[in-house]
Amino acid sequence: MAGTADLDPDSExxxxxxxxxxxxxDPARSRHMWTRSAVATNGDLVVTGxxxxxxxxRDVDSLxxxxxxxxxxxxxxxxxxxxxxxxGSAGAVVVAGRGESGAIAVYDxxxxxxxxxxxxxxxxxxxxxxxxFYLPYxxxxxxxxxxxxxxxxxxxxxxxxxxxxxxxxxxxxxxxVRWSYETDASPIxxxxxxxxxxxxxxxNRCMGDHDNGLVVLETDTGDLEWTWDPGxxxxxxxxxxxxxxxxxxxxxxxxxxxxxxxxxxAERWHVxxxxxxxxxxxxxxxxxxxxxxxxxRTAFVTGNTYALERRETEGxxxxxxRIATFDADGDLLWNEQVRGFVHGLATDGDTLVAPCAQNFxxxxxxxxxxxxxxxxxxxxxxxxxxxxxxxxxxxxxxxxAIEEPVEYHDEGDQRGEYALRVxxxx
Length: 426
Prior knowledge:
mainly beta; Methylamine Dehydrogenase, Chain H; 5-stranded antiparallel β-sheet; 1 helix; 35 strands; disordered N terminus; PQQ_rpt_dom; PQQ-binding-like beta-propeller repeat protein
């Protein structure tokens, strides 16, 4: 992928994203921080989740609050459940927590009334240390309109012993657990196939008995259908997963490649994304953190540069902070810089939205932006921010993002603010 020409930046179009301040939050520093905010949009609703647990639903046009709820943990993930009528509107809001209880809660989209709540710490255990990385963390949500699926993990360390506890759940509409799938690995992503028959689970760290980066479960029962693994040494396995028909795309943290798998995990193709590369005496690599597949095209997004033998590095991998899209045969369609760390992709059809945060190697504030792409043709727009973009959502023509303030360690000036940003793709 290195050396492929970038697309013409003049093809990008800048929108004016409305800004609504969200209050105070400690500024991020040079290195990217953990997930602290969430946003979702559905129909006439935009919902934000904040680090202090505040969840607010707003009218997407006026941004006037419809309701506010206090989630028991840090509100770091949001999904919406469809209502039967009117068609296309949100009927409920699901909030994923990171905190003492690891709470999953469902709120009525019209009133904010809590319908049910489940505390995952009862299954994965409570934090053994009062540190953010040890708290139960609901890392992913998926829904087929009827069932809600969630993945939670908890980390602990005792001397040289490191261990993960995790569970994947299927919840019925009343909040009862239809089934759960527990392992001693660290889940990072969930995705449903189009028919809602299979749920894929990506595991990022496997350091115990569970030794597969990808499992596919039957959604009605939770029974295991098949597994796949990059087969690499070490505990790093999968960064993200995405169904497309009968195939599933996988970004591999094990070998820094991208894969397209067919039924039962048969490999269709794989591509080098940010594999180990020697530059000026250093062996550098970057993790493929995100993948999205739709209609025979697959996009992968890579993250920060790391050195094989030490934490710090002066060099940069040529394919760090890039998005690259491939066709059904694994041939490159286009690739483009995203310039900063992307916390997570927001997608709708062929539209991709990348909230770009800081690039801690170069500390260039021009990397702070919400970047938009078309899966087939490439860049379509960029919305520059003073702060960093840490979450995004897209639904039809509506785009929403969270801006957080940042203060580079060697400058001392705060850039940007904690704010909701909303605009239209029309």
